[in-house]
Structures are given as C-alpha cells and as structure tokens.
Amino acid sequence: MDDADGFNELPELAIRMDEALEALGENAAMVLSELNGYLCGILTSPEVIPDDEWLREIWDSEDDNGPFESLADANAFKALVRDYKKSIDDELSGETFEPIYDIDAETEEVIWEIWAIGFSRAMDLRIDSWNAYLESSDEEVSEALMNLMGLVAIADPEEESEAVSEEDLAEVHEAAPDIIPYAVLALYHGGERGLQRSHLDS
C-alpha cells in the first residue's frame, strides 16, 4: 500500500513493513496501522512479553515460523518486524509520536479504529497486568490508559461499551487521532517500564 492508497507519507522502513504484510496475503493477521498499534501496546505493556509470543499474533498460525515457505523467509520477516518495533521504540523515547493511521481515500477521514484494535490485541496478551496503570498514583498514566480503553471500546464491536450519543461519538472520532499519541507517550514514559527505563538511563 503506497501513500496514495491510504496512508500519509511513510518512513522507508514502514513502507517495507507494509509490503511484507501485504505479501502474506490472507495469512496476515494485521495490516500496517494495526501492527503499529499492536507494537505500541507491546512496548508500553507493564509486563515484558517474549518475542516468540507476540510475533505469532501477526500471522494466522500457531507455528513459530508462520506461513512462510522457508525458515530463512520466516527469519527475514521476524527481523523486519523487530527493526520496525525498534523504530517505534526510538520514536517513543522522544517527545513526539506519530501513529500510523489508515486514511479513507474518498473522505480523507482518519481511520484510527484499526490502530486501536491493534493496541487492544497487545493488551489482551497480559490483560491483568494493565491494572497497574489504572491503579497508578500518576494520574496522567491512569487517565492515558482509560482514554485508550475508551477508544478501544468504540473501535472494537466485540468490546462492551456504554451507550454514547451520536454527538459525543462524533466528538470522540474527531479527537481520537490526537488523543492516541499523547496517551501512548504517557504510558511509555510514565508507566512501569517507563520508570525502569528512567532508572537505567540515570
């Protein structure tokens, strides 16, 4: 998928990642925007998740080597994903973050819901551990996760959510693309692993 097909300008590594996901065809469990959200969830998870576990979620297979024709192909794909994850990690370590959203080609509307669903898939891997953020004494952290969980509830039809008026829903849809990066940065820098990183850097 190139920029004209639904994304704003993408870094070269993100373009390569998108092409690799498309090459998986029906075996791919995620598109690029969803993967971006998923990896943000992995990077901000209160509990570290082993690579082999979270990598399997990216394709529709329980096999560690996925749907690839050879071990070399599997390893090349995994290496690309790890490089892409590292690029997101590097971006989050700064003061700004730009999530990758799909853009509706006709309306130019930002489709943030796909990103949110990816983030929720990462949360599901260690769902109970996220309570640490909700119970955090840092209000910015707890509020950030509550905001993201609210967006997930709207984005994912399988999630139970309270009834929201059409007017409020329209406001959420308009604000969501800007809420997400601030919330992710708050979790990355202020969450449990963020505190661990700050101790290591000091």
From TrEMBL:
<protein>
    <recommendedName>
        <fullName>YecA family protein</fullName>
    </recommendedName>
</protein>
<dbReference type="InterPro" id="IPR036255">
    <property type="entry name" value="YgfB-like_sf"/>
</dbReference>
<dbReference type="InterPro" id="IPR011978">
    <property type="entry name" value="YgfB-like"/>
</dbReference>
<dbReference type="Pfam" id="PF03695">
    <property type="entry name" value="UPF0149"/>
</dbReference>
